[in-house]
Amino acid sequence: MRKATLAFSELDSIDALEALKPEAEEGMDRVEINISTDSPCIEIDAEDTRALRAALNSYLRWLNISEKITTEYNK
User: Fold this and answer.
1) Do residues 50 and 72 touch, judged by C-beta distance below 8 A?
2) Which alpha helices (DSSP H) does 1-75 contain, by range?
3) What is the rounded CA–CA span in Å between residue 46 and residue 28?
4) pLDDT digits (tens, 9 = 90+) for 12-44
5) Does the pTM exceed 0.85?
6) Counting CB atoms within 10 angstroms of each CB, which of 25, 52, 53, 66 has the fewest?
């Protein structure tokens, strides 16, 4: 089993994490995702390296899009 944890220090990330919770609940093949807003983080447990990489890429891309939208909206 492969694991990764993405920890966040900014309070703005809590809204983005809340938005990703439904995606995490739906799940991905060979991957379990846990999102915590108490200590803002995403924990990814994957069966293999490929699944871990795919999940990391997806969640990092979604977080990046969220940040871009927030930045553009707050201009």
Assistant:
1) no
2) 13-26, 49-73
3) 9
4) 678 899 999 999 999 889 999 999 998 899 999
5) yes
6) 25
